[in-house]
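REQUEST FORM: STRUCTURE PREDICTION
Request ID: SP-0412
Submitted by: Lab K.M.
Chain count: 1
Length (residues): 333
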Amino acid sequence: MRAENSATARTSIAVPGAPRAADRPGGSSGAAPGGSSRDGDVRGSGRPDPRTGTLMAALGVVAFSLTFPATAWGLEGFGPWSLVAVRSVLAAIVAGGCLLALRVPPPGRRHWAGLAVVAAGVVLGFPMLTTLALETSTTAHAAVVVGLLPLTTALFSALRVGTRPSRTFWAAASAGAAVVIAFTVQQSGGALSSADAYLFGALLICAAGYTEGGRLARVMPGWQVIGWALVLCLPLTVPVAAVALSYEPVELTAHSVTGLLWVAVGSQFLGLVVWYRGMAAIGIPKASQLQLAQPLLTLVWSVLLLGEHLTPAAPLTAAAVLVCIAVTQRARG
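STATUS: Completed
RESULT:
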């Protein structure tokens, strides 16, 4: 009896004010298949430690860095509307299959508005706007939007989630963004193109999607966040894909198919799975600053996969960006 009372006391202290399962209506915890509660939250789902979270966010950045070169490949055989719609449908099929296989219950009503923001930002808006931009812009120039994305995401996080990073963090983040912008503008010859309106629009809508997704990843697994966002878009992406494929010419080549499969499965689903998981573990501001390395990685891929030219300034820029990333990861908040 004494041991039993002691165990009960410890439980009460560990979870203050939490009703026991037997005290709830119906005498059960309300747990649903897949480890989720009935309102779609996941409690105590084993968030990774900061080091694992940093690794996951970094893997997401690597996956995203291949998006622009893969999109350029995809545009060799698909029109812009076809490419975006089909990639979203394919990603939704993969995500929906995972949700069905694991019998994951739908999220609670209060989460659907946030999932709609994720869908508008990272499933529809960012892919569509950047794909339209890449029709007239090189991947080097398009990397400008990614150079600004970490700082913009941190700003959105401060406004939406209430995070308050330190002055050191903001100084390092601003310096890193300035370095990346200077480098990518220099790479593109210093001239602004007609694609810039698409790129800056993509910057804002993607930052909102990242922030909302990072917030939701605190209460449900990151793969479910992007999974439900993709499924939510199916009523729109399926008819758009059908119409676009009937109007835009399609040429199936090794490049176009590989590019389509990567942006659908790698960038649109798997990359966002580890990205949102990392954001939940280390926080939206710190995770976002890892993306300072993304434009430089994109430029490396553009050289290897697209044959674009890389100037000798790249190693110096990479070193400066790595210093800024290190400072943001150590800064308070």
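NOTES: DSSP finds 13 helices and two strands in the chain.
Reviewed by: T.R.
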